[in-house]
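Re: beginner question about structure tokens

> Can someone show what the tokenized structure looks like for a real chain? I only ever see the sequence side.

Sure, here's an example I had lying around. Input first:
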Amino acid sequence: MPKRRVVVTGIGIVSPVGNDLSTTWNNITNGVSGIDLITQFDTANFATKFAGEVKNFSTEGYFDAKEARRTDRFIQLGVVAGVQAVRDSGIEDLVNLDKERVGLIIGSGIGGLPTIENHSVILNEKGPRKIGPFFIPGALGNMIAGQLSILYGYKGVSYGIVSACASSNHCIGDAARYIEYGDCDIMLAGGAEGIFIPERHSELEKIIAQYGQPKR
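And the corresponding structure tokens:
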């Protein structure tokens, strides 16, 4: 069968240079950098004091307060970007939208590592009874797709791909194939990461120390 044409109809983004598409594009085109001094943790014991942080991020209007507390940051970032993409595309305004034909492939390189780390501390300090029932669904790598499918009632394929820094690209590529070969009509695809924690920063410094600064 002939492959169908695939087009991008909506974009959502949360990034160090903007928490929505218009702000991000304006900052990129005007040379505004997202690199700044780290504010999310104390860098006193680190040689590197700067990074690209997502700043002024809020889940208000996307999650209620209780749900936000149960959900890892990477899921929050991905859901907010996903909602932006859906709104930008206008697909929810389509008459007779067949939600059985709308799928989601949204991944993450690591997923909810901060949530896993936090629950490990709780387990060691307070015991197993203090581990809540929402620990696992609040950290799973495929839960951006899961949350968005629940939010919008999309019933097509729904999963996430984990392939390190290429995760989002692989999700977009697989999503395009679902449309090309007629398995779905609309796909929501991409990815998010939220592992900006001291342990990850320490690992990066050790890599730089071992292999040296990248050549320019």
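Each token stands for a local structural state, so reading them left to right follows the chain. Strands lie at 35-37, 50-52, 102-107, 158-159, 186-191.
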